[in-house]
Structure formats: structure tokens, C-alpha cells
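User: Can you model how zinc ion sits in this protein?
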Amino acid sequence: MNEVEKFKYADGRMPIETLYNIYGDFVKAGWTSKIIFDSQDRVPPAVSFQSPMEGDAVWIISGVHGEEPAGPMAIARGVNDIIKLGKKFPMVVIPVCFPWGYATDWRYMNSKRWVPDIDLLSVEDTNYFLFDDNGKLRADPSGSTKEGYLLSKHIVDLHGTHPPLVSLNFHEDNFSRGGYVYAYGEAENKREIASKILYAMAKNKMPVIANGKTRFNQKIVNGIIGSVFDSSIDELIVSDECCFDGKEVEKPYADMAFVIETPSKNASLIKRVSTHLVVIKNIDNFFEFENPQAL
Ligand SMILES: [Zn+2]
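Assistant: Here's the modeled complex, given as C-alpha cells:
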């Protein structure tokens, strides 16, 4: 029996085939779909969708960690809302960065859950492609997984037609009692926007953490964690340079990137999906894109 058959979507999450059928609506609406990498055990590949409109884009990302189903499900429920947003401004959607993990409830490629003190392999490890303060790569690129390389490279390649203006990455946290938001990037108003996101979450009756610490010992202040150097794809998106195959790349970058976290032990899956969906539906209210000067 493979891991997918063993898991059988026992926590009530939608089967991945159902999600992908719904995501097919992007293509029906004229969006482009690209394969990022293949999965195993008959699980569909990781894919991205790009709106027909090109230019500075809003990015929606989810499913980086396999045991966090709310984001991929919210994107399915909100597919028509996202298609509508894509008529107002260019967009990129990567709904399930780690499809095999979603289908099996595995957080990482080599571990079902987070555990301290072991080398955990994530599809979003960007330390092989980002520089440290001394201008050196943070890790030897030969250590990257194939999936990690292909996801990071794909993101940077998409910067050509749909450079990121802002990105929202939907995660969950099974250690936390409440939701919180990471705010990456150099935009002066990023905390103000993160507060609007938190307010929308709280208004949807999702518990939100005011102050505390994450499992990684990151400080949460007023529900927000500022820029962290965690070698995530969010950090890649706000970085102006990276390196692939020994070649340095100067790239467009977002001024701000947000990671939205909902507490998976302290709220039902239905509630977490509806909270992510509220955030998605309010994207143009948070950023006032009708008036780009407001950025
Ligand atoms: Zn996560």
C-alpha cells in the first residue's frame, strides 16, 4: 500500500484529484498552466497558473507543507474569485507546491512532521540559491533536492512575464493557538497591510495571536513577524539576486510578501479554509490596486 492509499484524506481534506479538477477552471478562463515537477504514487505534478494579463503580478502560493490543507482548498473554493481578480491585475497561482505531501499528509519530503535537530528536506529550501551577508551561497547547491531546485527556478523564471508585486503564501501551524502573519520585504507599509489581513482573519472568528513566539523561536508582535532570513520561497520572492547553475541572476523582486498562518489544532478545517478564503477575496481591498500609487 502506498502512502496515498494509507492516508485516504482521513482528515476531511479534498482529494488532490478534486482540487486539480477545480483548478482546471483557470485554464478554461484562458490562464496558462505550467508543470513545475512531477510527483510519485500517481499524484499529479506541481503546477503554476498565470493570468493572461502580464506585468507586475499578485502571487498566491500554497501547499508548501503537505500537512497544511487549508490553503490549497481555499484556492479551489475561491477559483472564480481569483479569476475575477486576474482581470483586474496580472496574477500567478501555485496552489499546491508539494502535491505528494498534500496527498499523503507528509510535511517534508523525508519526514511526516517537523522534528527538531534533523535535516528536514522541504520543497521550498532556497538556501542553495540565495546569498548570505558575505555574498556567498548559503549552502552548496549540490545538496538541493530536484523538487527544491525546480520550484525555485520556476519561480524565478516566471518573474520574466509576471514579476511579483506582492505575494501571499497560505500556510498552517499545528503548534500555535492562533493565527499570525509573516511580513517579508522592504515596503514601509507592510505592517499596516499585515494588520489588515489579521483583522480580516479575526473578523472571520479565527483566533489570532497578539504576542508570542513560533516553534522556530521567531518573535510575534501584534500578530506579525517581520522579515526573517529563513531561506523560504517568500524570501526568494523579495530578494533581488539569486544563483542557479553557477550563474548569478539579478531579478525583479516584491517589496512585500506575506505568509498567512492558521492554527490547525485550534480551529476546524472548514474554519481555516474559510479564513484563507476571506483573505483571498479581500486582496484588492488590502492593497488598493485600483490606485497603484497607494503602494
Ligand atoms: Zn507551513
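A couple of observations from the model: The pocket of zinc ion is lined by residues 64-65, 68, 171-172 (CB under 6 Å). The CA atoms of residues 251 and 293 lie 22 Å apart.
User: Helpful, thanks.
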